[in-house]
Amino acid sequence: MNYETWYAFELDKLQDRIGYIFDDISFLRTALLHSSYLNEHGGREHNERLEFLGDSVLQLSVSCFLFISEKKLDEGALSRQRASLVCGASLGRWSEYICLPALLRTGKGVVRETFRSSMYADAVEAVFGAVFLDGGYEAADAVIRGYLEFLLRTTSQEPMDPKSSLQMLAQEKGLGIPSYEVLSVTGPSHEPLFSVRVLLGGASGGEGQDFSRKAAEFNAAKEALSYLSKETMKQ
C-alpha cells in the first residue's frame, strides 16, 4: 500500500471517529495541511483560514451549549468555563483521541514538540471549519458536541490551562480579561520564535517565548500568574 492509498484510508477512519462524512473530502485534506508543508512542497492553500473559521464556530457552539446547560451561571462564570473548553490543551488532547497527529501534513523542519502540539490544536479548529463549510452549522455543532462529551468524560478533575487560570484570577482582582500581543517574531519561516506579552488592566503582566504563538501566550500567562500569586501573598 503506497502512502496516498494509506492516507485516504486513514481519512475515512478519521471521519468515522469524528462522526461526520464529508461530501467534499478536499475540505478535510486542507484542514490537515500545515503551511510548513507548502513551504517545502509547494501549493496554494493550507489550513490557517479554516482554523480561523473553525475557532469562531467552536466559540459559538460551546457558548450555546453552556448557555443552555448551565442556567445558574453568570456571564463571568460562563466565560471561564468556555475558556477551559476551547483552550489549546483541550483541543490537543482530543486531537490525540481521534488520532489526528499522524495525519497532519507538515514540513520536515517542524521538529519541536511544543510547536507540534499547538499545531494539533489548530488543526482541530480547522477540521471544525471544514465541517462547517461542507455541512453547515448543524453538522459542525454535532461534531463539536462529540468533542465536548469527550472533555466532560475525561477532564472534570484536571486543572485549567494557564491562560484560563489567569483569566479567572485577573477577573477576581478586577483587572478585566487579559489580552495578548506579539512583541516580535524571529527565526526562520518554518520555525518562527514568538515573543508575546500579556496585558492586565492595560499594563504588562508577563512575557513569554515559544515556537508557536499559543505556546508563547501560555508562557506569558504562567509568568503573570506567578506575579499575581506573589502579590496576593503580600496582601
Summarize the structure.
With 235 residues, the chain is mainly alpha-helical. 63% of the residues lie in helices and 10% in strands. The chain has 2 domains: 152 residues, Ribonuclease III domain (Ribonuclease iii, N-terminal Endonuclease Domain, Chain A, Orthogonal Bundle); 73 residues, Double Stranded RNA Binding Domain, CATH 3.30.160.
How would you summarize the topology of this molecule?
Layout: H1 3-18, H2 25-31, H3 35-41, H4 48-69, H5 75-86, H6 88-97, H7 113-135, H8 137-154, H9 162-172, E1 179-186, E2 193-200, E3 203-210, H10 213-234
Antiparallel strand pairs: 1-2, 2-3
Polypeptide structure, described:
This protein has helices at 3-18, 25-31, 35-41, 48-69, 75-86, 88-97, 113-135, 137-154, 162-172, 213-234, and strands at residues 179-186, 193-200, 203-210. By secondary structure, the protein is mainly α. It folds into two domains: 3-154, Ribonuclease iii, N-terminal Endonuclease Domain, Chain A (Orthogonal Bundle), CATH 1.10.1520; 162-234, Double Stranded RNA Binding Domain. Strands 1-2-3 form a three-stranded antiparallel β-sheet, with helices on one face. A hairpin with a 6-residue loop joins strand 1 and strand 2 (193-200). The longest helix has 23 residues, at 113-135. The mean pLDDT is 86.
